Amino acid sequence: MTRSPFEEEILTHIRPTPEEVEHLRTISDRIIAYLMEYHRRPSMVVGSVARGTFVRGDRDLDIFMLFPPDLSREDLAIEGIALGRSVVDHFGGTAVEKYAEHPYLKARIYDLDIDLVPCYHVASAREIKSAVDRTPFHTRYIIPRIVRYIDDALLMKQFTKAGGVYGSDHMTEGFSGYLCELLVIYYGGFNPLIRAAARWRPGLVIDPENHRTRSFDEPLVVVDPTDPNRNVAAALSLDQMCAFIELARAYLDDPTEAFFTIHRPASFTRKQVELTVAERGSALYTISFPTPPYVPDTIVPQLRKSAAAIADLLKRSGFAINRIDCHMGERQSVLLFELLNDRVSPVIRHIGPPVINGENAHRFIRKYIETPPLSGPFIEDGRYIVEVLRPYTTVGALLSSHDLIEAALGKHVRKSMAEHGWEVASGADCWSEDLSEFLAAFFERSSPAVRIMRMSGE
Predict the structure, then answer these.
(1) In the chain, is it the N or the C terminus that has fewer CB atoms within a 10 Å radius of its CB?
(2) Residues 339, 439: one domain?
(3) Confidence category of residue 457, pLDDT binned at 50, 70, 90
(4) Measured between alpha carbons, how far apart are the two ends of the chain, in Å?
(5) Measured between alpha carbons, how far is 361 from 11 in angstroms, rounded to an integer?
(6) Which helix (H) or strand (E) holds 337?
(7) What is the DSSP letter of 393?
């Protein structure tokens, strides 16, 4: 398997050290032994640590505690959390309870971040009772097949991380570690994968076990080898798929270490925000409110939905949107809007029904006789027209109004805003230390390959 000298050099920096591997194995073996010896509970290490495909420094440990499938979901949650806390107490760690499909513990034991996850011990992936039950089957499938491709998987993960397309969370919408591994195995290495990806088109279907039982409508379909009804690439958005295609093409044109180099995100000062907004001649507004107490995979889609709904409200009110974005912080979440105008004329034309539409035309006339408009009703091109005053002539007034709550917001977003209120800021006042990287990424937005090529040219 031929690699370039610099790819071999990259591997010397991203392979986990023997000390790392031994440390992770020692801690995981001790936890698994404790669970069996003291609680008669079988468990297993899953994820990239189990498969030997973790990049140096990414030392998160996932331990799944296996429960009988006849246990109720409620009892699984109760017993799983109690068992996880017993592990944490025994090893002198700390933990917080998190919730995905059911509760689990995110623990800190010694110097490791460890997820202690209860799941059902089922015979096959087709018998799963919750999404996490599938993960052990992924580990069992990958381990014997990845042995000759471990270095390729490391290159693929580092490549996607440096390109900003790694992560299947709702904010990133990119490649999961499992997806990276499956693609490397399917194509027979990192470089064959990159050559193939440069020619990808949306709608591509990859079925490693040739057992697909249904159709999928995502841009890239990689049928789960352990479950014919699941697309491993379901989280990958069209934009992120295209970003990876672009990265692959650029890498083939000029393969350099820059494609594996992860840079610290840029950040903006308040002054930079002020100067950038002035240079663009646009209007910048933020809506901030307390972050609802749920995991990002629940809240981020609701933030996007809420931003889109408010953008529609702004458009209907005469304001032109350039771009929108959202940010979920630990304490505050933010919806960001860049507009091409933040003021509109007080007068607006409202088009009524055709004159020949008797019943509707009559109701329209009666309405505006009882509540006289600025002008009209009058007739243009066979329809009634009135000119009325807009309820809001500035973006700030609209975003501060109760009409915002009436938009099609995400459920938890609406609840947070209704209970705690929200703050509207504009221009440089949108800046805060917590948003410095978010605002820099918004204004300096570029595709991953373009960003890498610009950095390489500096």
Answers:
(1) C
(2) yes
(3) low
(4) 33
(5) 74
(6) strand 332-339
(7) S
Longest CA–CA separation in the chain, Å: 86
Q: Which one, of 441, 443, 449, 456, lies nearest residue 160 by Cα? A: 449
Structural domain count, the chain: 4
Do 155 and 225 have their domain in common? yes
Residues 316 and 421 in one domain: yes
180 contacts: CB under 8 Å, gap ≥ 6:
153, 156, 157, 160, 166
Q: Are residues 367 and 400 in the same domain?
A: no
pLDDT, residue 98, reads 82
Contact 97, 89 (CB under 8 A): no
Percent with pLDDT over 90 in the chain: 87
| Domain identity same for 312 and 284 | yes
Burial of 291 by CB count in 10 Å (0-12 exposed, 13-18 middle, 19+ buried)? buried
> CA 154: distance to chain centroid?
22
- On whether both 369 and 403 belong to a single domain, the answer is no
Dist. CA 62–CA 83, nearest whole Å: 15
pLDDT at residue 421 greater than cutoff 90: yes
**CA 302 to CA 445: how far, in whole Å?**
22
**418 and 292, same structural domain?**
yes
Question: In the 8-state DSSP scheme, what is residue 55?
Answer: P
Q: Is residue 97 part of a domain?
A: yes
Range of the domain at 162: 145-260
Beta-bridge partner residues of 426:
285
Q: List pLDDT tens digits, range 432-449.
A: 999 999 999 999 999 999
φ, ψ for residue 238, nearest 5 deg: -60, -45
Q: Which helix (H) or strand (E) holds 143?
A: helix 135-146
The reported pTM is 0.88
Which of 132, 154, 182 is the endpoint of a domain?
Answer: 132
**Res 1: pLDDT:** 61
pLDDT of the residue at 123: 86
Is 438 in a helix, a strand, or coil?
helix
CATH of the domain at 162: 1.10.1410.30
